[in-house]
Amino acid sequence: MSWNGNNGNKDPWGRKDGPPDIDEAIKKIKERFSFLFGSSGGGGFTSKSFFFLFTILLALWFVIGIYQVEQAERSVVLRLGKYLETKGPGLHWNPPIIDSVTKVDVVRVRPHRHDALMLTKDENIVDVTVSVQYQITNPENYLLEIRGADNSLAQATESALRHVIGSTIMDDALTTGRELIAQQVKERLQIYLDKYITGLQVVIVNIEDSSPPDQVQEAFDDVIKAREDEVRVRNEAETYANGLVPEARGQAQRMIQQAQAYREQVIAEAEGDATRFSLLLAEYEKAPEVTRNRLYLDAVQNVMSNSTKVM
């Protein structure tokens, strides 16, 4: 059974079969615009209506071209796809469609993180994670000179890191040499970015992590532990030496002082004995016999006073 068997050129819903009548559609549109702009007779636009419509479209076109550039932004203006100028903060206007405007924040510091396996100078492999913070200092170069500035930054970061790590031994890359590596990577990365005309400025580079591959991590931990033990023993020895040396110096000073005191005592006793013998000599020269007998008696008395007497 055919849908159109009893309806002529109409479908089951009562609509005519075939393409829509374009002339009729255009006529309806004209009638609506004529009603809107006050034309009589529905026969088309008057000059007044056309001028009114043109004024509205022109005003709309003008308003669309107004835009605000914030204090931290710069706007890069292209006219028909070609660079025209870069505008600073403030309220600006550019003709829509003819000009295209792209705003770029030149104050915000952007982060970039890169992780890669690197070969060191002594032919070891380290896993290095580096973070780069950067700013856009030249908006027109950032947008126009290269295609994909962020991708260029990633490639330049890896190249700079590979060059610096390749000139560094593994111990420095994993321990005490990180700050120097970060500084060298920053300098070389900036050289690459300037060479590529990216319009980017590196603010700071940090080595977030550097470690050996998982396959040799256990052996590396043993090396680190041995190194820490070496440092600990050396510190203990230095502490012992630092305590022993002052003690030895103090003991030596005491011995020197005791020797000086003993020297002064011996000299004083010798001088006293010499004075006593000088006086005896003078007495002996005056009366030899008497002095000799006196000395004899004094000696006998001294001996007897220290001897045990038995009755």
From TrEMBL:
UniProt xrefs under InterPro entries: Band7/mec-2_domain, Band_7, Band_7/SPFH_dom_sf, HflK, Membrane_HflK_N, Stomatin_HflK_fam
TM spans (from-to): 50-69
Protein name: Band 7 domain-containing protein
Keyword Transmembrane belongs to the record: yes
Entry's Gene Ontology cellular component terms: membrane
Predominant localisation class: membrane
Natural source organism: marine metagenome
Band domain: residues covered: 64-224
SUPFAM superfamilies attached to this UniProt entry: Band 7/SPFH domain (SSF117892)
SMART domains attached to this UniProt entry: PHB
Family that this chain belongs to: Belongs to the band 7/mec-2 family. HflK subfamily.
Keywords noted in UniProt: Membrane, Transmembrane, Transmembrane helix
Subcellular location: Membrane
Pfam annotation, one family: HflK_N
Keyword DNA-binding on entry: no
